[in-house]
UniProtKB/TrEMBL annotation:
<feature type="transmembrane region" description="Helical">
    <location>
        <begin position="199"/>
        <end position="217"/>
    </location>
</feature>
<feature type="transmembrane region" description="Helical">
    <location>
        <begin position="127"/>
        <end position="147"/>
    </location>
</feature>
<keyword id="KW-0812">Transmembrane</keyword>
<feature type="transmembrane region" description="Helical">
    <location>
        <begin position="84"/>
        <end position="102"/>
    </location>
</feature>
<feature type="compositionally biased region" description="Basic residues">
    <location>
        <begin position="226"/>
        <end position="237"/>
    </location>
</feature>
<protein>
    <submittedName>
        <fullName>Uncharacterized protein</fullName>
    </submittedName>
</protein>
<feature type="transmembrane region" description="Helical">
    <location>
        <begin position="59"/>
        <end position="77"/>
    </location>
</feature>
<keyword id="KW-1133">Transmembrane helix</keyword>
<feature type="transmembrane region" description="Helical">
    <location>
        <begin position="159"/>
        <end position="179"/>
    </location>
</feature>
<feature type="transmembrane region" description="Helical">
    <location>
        <begin position="16"/>
        <end position="39"/>
    </location>
</feature>
<keyword id="KW-0472">Membrane</keyword>
<feature type="region of interest" description="Disordered">
    <location>
        <begin position="223"/>
        <end position="251"/>
    </location>
</feature>
Length: 251
């Protein structure tokens, strides 16, 4: 399973593996600095905090997301694949929404426009905003995927899995964080799990797109389903070598 995931992500290419190691090391280092800052007061700089607006981890996440959007757009132009342009739009929207806090601002607009009473106005407004933008991006991805070449359909599936894990960190773990927001040390640990997990996944997305753009990495449907295909072939081989008559001899 590990080798199949590595092959799908392009980690068999040395430059991709090197970039992956550097970005993951950077992310883990930031997480360690946040933990030592929170529990030991070392280093004494609030810029290492996860979950803090415009702190170092958040700014690095912006850089990772911007690079991902740029690489996907570059691939869309060079390879002439609409699905990659759609993925570029996904990462651009994620970056713009996080940096400009669009979901909070648009939620207020929806709350005022439709007169939704509090305390439901803000959460329902955010759900409406994410739903509208998400459906538009999903439609663009579906159309682009339908007409993409097989290797780019496989790449799109990998990105979809990574995006799903990113949403898991941003939504599910964030909901868990609400229950321990004022409980130490769980508040710190869940913050690392949520924001650090998002940063790790963005690093994986970045290295994957880098491999597609500059190392000629191309995941194939066979790569993504190697385990299933191998098991099917083993079953065929066993059937071929098994004697047809296994019962007792007849007299």
């Amino acid at each position: 399973m590990r080798s199949r995931a590595a092959a799908a992500l392009g980690l068999n290419h040395r430059p991709v593996a090197g970039l992956f190691a550097m970005t993951i090391t950077l992310t883990l280092g930031l997480g360690l600095l946040y933990l030592t800052h929170s529990f030991l007061g070392i280093p004494d700089w609030k810029g290492f905090r996860f979950g803090k607006d415009r702190a170092l981890p958040e700014m690095i996440g912006y850089v990772f997301t911007a690079w991902a959007a740029g690489l996907a757009l570059y691939l869309a132009v060079v390879q002439r694949q609409a699905v990659l342009a759609s993925w570029s739009a996904v990462f651009a929207v994620l970056l713009a929404d996080d940096y400009f806090m669009l979901h909070e601002r648009m939620a207020k607009v929806i709350h005022v426009t439709f007169g939704i009473p509090q305390p439901w106005g803000q959460p329902l407004g955010e759900i409406g905003w994410f739903g509208a933008v998400g459906l538009a991006l999903l439609a663009a991805l579906a159309v682009g995927h339908r007409f993409a070449a097989p290797e780019w359909q496989a790449a799109s599936r990998v990105l979809a899995v990574l995006l799903g894990l990113l949403v898991l960190c941003g939504v599910v773990i964030d909901a868990l964080h609400m229950f321990v927001a004022d409980v130490e040390p769980w508040n710190v640990l869940v913050t690392v799990l949520e924001d650090g997990g998002e940063l790790l996944l963005l690093a994986v997305v970045l290295t994957f797109l880098y491999g597609l753009a500059f190392c000629d990495h191309r995941p194939t449907p066979e790569t993504l389903t190697r385990r299933r295909t191998t098991a099917r072939r083993r079953g065929i081989r066993r059937a071929a070598v098994t004697p047809s008559g296994t019962g007792p001899p007849r007299h």
